[in-house]
Amino acid sequence: MSEAPHLTFDLDTPGLSTGHLVVPKGSDCEALSLPVFSLNKGEGPRLLITGGNHGNELEGPIVARRLVEWLPEAQTCGRVIIVPEINPLAVQAWTRNTPIDGKNLNRVFPGRADGSATERIADAVSRLLLPMADTVFDLHSAGPTMDFPPAVITHPIADADLMAKTLRMAEAFKLPMTLVWQYHDTLGMFDTWAHSQGKVFICAEFGGGTVGAEALAIYEAGVRNALITLGLVEGEAEYPTFRQQKSSRTLETLSSDLLRSPTRGIFEPRRSVLDEVKQGDLIGVLHPMESLSADSIRVRAPTTSIVCMIRSGGHVDADEEIVYLARPLNL
Ligand SMILES: [Zn+2]
Hints:
Its cofactor is Zn(2+). The chain has helices spanning about 60-75, 90-95, 115-130, 160-170, 190-195, 215-230, and strands at about 5, 15-25, 30-40, 45-50, 80-85, 135-140, 145, 150-155, 175-180, 200-205, 250-255, 260, 265-270, 275, 280-285, 295-300, 305-310, 320-330. By secondary structure, the chain is α+β, with helices and mostly antiparallel strands. It has a 15-stranded mixed beta sheet that branches. A 3-stranded antiparallel beta sheet has the order 13-15-16, with no helix packed on it. Helix 1 links the parallel strand 4 and strand 5 (about 80-85). Helix 1 (about 60-75) crosses helix 6 (about 215-230). The site of zinc ion has 4 residues, from loops.
């Protein structure tokens, strides 16, 4: 019998304290020690901030570590727990999934104590960290293959009250897009599990394959806005500037708004994220590499909509996701 997951320090310690979340060893790897920062200023909101759920999305770990620099000073009340890299195995490998078991941490919640490495991480987070929070910010980004505006994402939640609270929290980031995503594959998501436990769960997203200073500043500003709205820090929430604009849109994307690649090839985007398109407008061109003809396949908008995510890198296989469209949220 291996040891149980545990923290190496007491989260109730006042002020800033640091230690590790220990994920027990299993047959596939040794025990893992995840750095944890606990900022305890007493009564108030209880927030858990996680990065590195997907290992090739580095904005989250970077912004989480930037928060550790200024939040201990700025925080006026409540409790914040920050885990910059909840899947260190994937972050080290710069891969979406955990290399040793091939699993996506964001599909195995609440995890299993006797499972593989990814499942043991989810189990430790579910048992020891999630119960300590009422609100969770899970900091993702779109990874190296998709362009995506700075955004916060949530999924439709059956509990109307939790849905309304979650949407209010999401909009408090004041990022260019708040997206309610009717996603086809939500089983085992950290989001879904946290929602089932009555938590407000916000997933921050950011596009692009490279980490840049401007993008990080917008991302961090969004998190700071949310911290202000929660009442954890003082200050005034402001829309960050994105493409010379300070604005925000709340959109929804349905399963039917996803366009898939008709064949293998190189996708050439002809539109950018947040562009409005009319039915029949050209969104992109797919160049099949095997073809001797110069005929490329034109990908057009099936309906009047807004481009919310578009393939920006990598050769695509047939039936892979290339474009997500969206429309203003109609509650
Ligand atoms: Zn992600």
